[in-house]
Design brief:
single chain, 448 residues, Protein Transport Mog1p, Chain A, seven-stranded mixed beta sheet, 10 helices, 26 strands, globular
Length: 448
C-alpha cells in the first residue's frame, strides 16, 4: 500500500485484467455475477445488475501504468499490479509469492547494488498518490492522521478525502471544473457560477495567499462585509451556496494555461488530531502536491507559420494531405481533423460574403463563443457530416485576419459516440493558438 497509486473503479476497469488472479467467488457489486463472469462479458463488476456498466479498454492508460502497483480506493483497498504487457493482476496474501515468481525479473547482487534506494512514492513520501485520468488530476494524501486512516472517493467531478468509516461529505473535498485555457481564474469563476446573478459576491484573486508555486493562482468568493467572526449563516443568497468564504478554509485554484480549475473545501480550524496536528494538515499535503495531468503531453505539434496557427494532435495520427501548405480547400487534413480557410467573395444571389458578414452570422446566438489563444472560436454541432452523415463537432476559428473552419472530417458515429468525439475534439481545440505569421507576401498572395 505504501508504494501504490490510488485509482478509482472507473479508471481501473479500463485496464485489461488477468482473470486467473481474481478469486473465482469474488462478486464486488453483490449482484450474483462474479467479477470474472462480468469482465469476460465486457461489463463492470462494480455496477450491480445484469448487463450493466459496459466499458472500453484504454491501452494508453495501461501503458502509462506499466510496472506500477495500484490501490483501488473505492473497493476496500484492493491492490493490483500492471505487468509489462499492460495487464493488471490482483495482488493478495494468497497469491503474492506465486505472482512474484511469475512476473518478477531476476537480478544479480552487483546490479541490485547499483539501484538507488528510495522511501518515496512518486514524491508522496510515506503517503499515497491519487490519480484520476478522467478528471485529469493527481495528488498525494497521507496513509493516516492520528489514529484515523484516510480514505479517498471520487464522485463525478468531486474527490473526497475523509476519515475511513465516516461519510465522505464529512471530510474535505477537491472539486474540478472546466475552463477556457486563456481565461483567468477570476473570469472562469464568474462564467461558471454566473456571478452576475448574485448580489455583492466578488472574486478575490491572489497568487500569494496560499503560498502557491509555479505561478498558480488562488481565489475566494467574498462579501462586502466581514464574516470572519460571524460566519456565512446570515449571508444566504450573496454567493453560490457551498462555495462562499467561511471561517474555515475554502478557495479556488488553477495554474497558468490550464483548461481546468478546482475548488478546495478544507473545513474548520477546530478539528484536532491526537498527535497535535490539525485535520487541515491533510489538505496542505494535497495542495502542495496537486497537479493537473496533461493528456496531450506526448502529442505531436502541427505548426503553420504561413497562415499563423498551431495545435497538437494525437501521436498515432498521420498527415494525409495539405502538409505545411494551406490552400483554400483542405488546409490541414488528418485521420479525423480538417481545417478549411473561409473564402470571401460574391454569392450567387449577388450578396457579398466577407469577414463582416461571417462575423455577423457567428455572433447571432446560434454558436457557443469560446476563448482561443490569439483569437476566438464559435463552436457548434454540425447535424450532417459531409462524409459519414452523422453529427460532427465543428468550430469557426477567428483570427486577426483569416477565419478557419475546423471539424471532424471523417468522424464515424457508428464507431464512436458523439460525446467521445467531442471530448477528443475539445482536447485538440484547447491546444490551438494563433501565432505570428511568416513574413512571406508571395505565399499569402498565392493562397488567396
Amino acid at each position: 500500500q505504501k508504494l501504490a497509486l490510488g485509482i478509482t473503479n472507473a479508471d481501473l476497469i479500463k485496464i485489461p485484467a488477468d482473470l486467473d488472479s481474481i478469486s473465482s467467488s469474488q462478486d464486488s457489486d453483490g449482484d450474483g455475477y462474479t467479477d470474472r463472469q462480468e469482465l469476460q462479458s465486457g461489463f463492470s463488476p462494480y455496477i450491480p445488475g445484469s448487463n450493466q456498466g459496459r466499458f472500453k479498454i484504454d491501452n494508453n492508460l495501461a501503458t502509462k501504468l506499466k510496472g506500477r502497483l495500484l490501490l483501488q480506493v473505492q473497493d476496500k483497498g484492493r491492490i493490483w499490479y500492471i505487468d509489462q504487457n499492460g495487464k493488471r493482476w490482483e495482488v493478495t496474501w494468497g497469491n503474492l509469492m506465486s505472482l512474484f515468481r511469475k512476473l518478477a525479473l531476476g537480478i544479480t547482487n552487483s546490479d541490485l547494488n547499483q539501484v538507488g534506494a528510495t522511501n518515496t512514492a512518486d514524491g508522496c513520501g510515506s503517503g499515497h498518490k491519487f490519480i484520476s485520468e478522467d478528471l485529469g488530476i493527481s495528488f498525494c494524501y497521507p496513509d493516516k492522521y492520528g489514529n484515523n486512516s484516510i480514505a479517498v472517493k471520487q464522485e463525478n467531478n468531486k474527490v473526497y478525502v475523509y476519515w475511513a468509516g465516516s461519510s465522505p461529505e464529512s471530510g474535505q473535498s477537491v472539486e474540478i471544473f472546466e475552463k477556457d485555457r486563456v481565461d483567468t481564474l477570476k473570469t472562469a469563476i464568474e462564467k461558471h457560477f454566473q456571478l452576475s446573478n448574485y448580489k455583492d459576491c466578488s472574486v478575490d484573486e491572489s497568487t500569494t495567499k496560499y503560498n502557491t508555486k509555479n505561478g498558480a493562482t488562488t481565489a475566494e468568493l467574498s462579501y462586502p462585509f466581514n464574516t470572519t467572526s460571524d460566519g456565512p449563516w446570515f449571508s444566504s443568497g450573496y454567493c453560490p451556496d457551498g462555495y462562499e468564504m467561511t471561517n474555515g478554509i475554502r478557495y479556488f485554484y488553477t495554474t497558468p494555461d490550464s483548461n481546468k480549475f478546482l475548488f478546495f473545501s478544507i473545513g474548520q480550524y477546530s478539528i484536532d488530531l491526537s498527535d497535535g496536528r490539525t485535520w487541515q494538515d491533510t489538505i496542505k499535503l494535497i495542495d502542495s502536491t496537486f497537479k493537473f495531468t496533461d493528456e496531450t503531453a506526448d502529442w505531436q505539434m502541427y505548426t503553420n507559420s504561413e497562415y499563423g496557427f498551431e495545435f497538437k494532435y494525437p501521436k498515432n495520427w498521420k498527415t494525409t494531405g495539405g502538409g505545411q501548405t494551406i490552400c483554400e480547400g483542405d488546409c490541414f487534413n488528418k485521420d479525423n481533423i480538417q481545417i478549411v480557410k473561409v473564402a470571401y467573395g460574391v454569392n450567387a444571389d449577388g450578396s457579398i460574403n466577407d469577414r463582416n458578414s461571417y462575423l455577423g452570422r457567428l455572433t447571432n446566438g446560434e454558436y457557443l463563443k469560446i476563448s482561443i489563444i490569439g483569437g476566438e472560436g464559435y463552436y457548434y454541432i454540425n447535424d450532417v457530416n459531409a462524409i459519414k452523415g452523422g453529427p460532427s463537432p465543428t468550430v469557426y476559428l477567428v483570427g486577426a485576419e483569416e477565419i478557419f473552419l475546423m471539424n471532424f472530417n471523417i468522424f464515424d458515429s457508428s464507431k464512436t459516440s458523439l460525446g467521445e468525439a467531442e471530448k477528443l475534439f475539445k482536447q485538440i481545440l484547447s491546444t490551438f493558438k494563433f501565432i505570428e505569421k511568416e513574413n512571406n507576401s508571395g505565399n499569402d498572395e498565392g493562397a488567396g
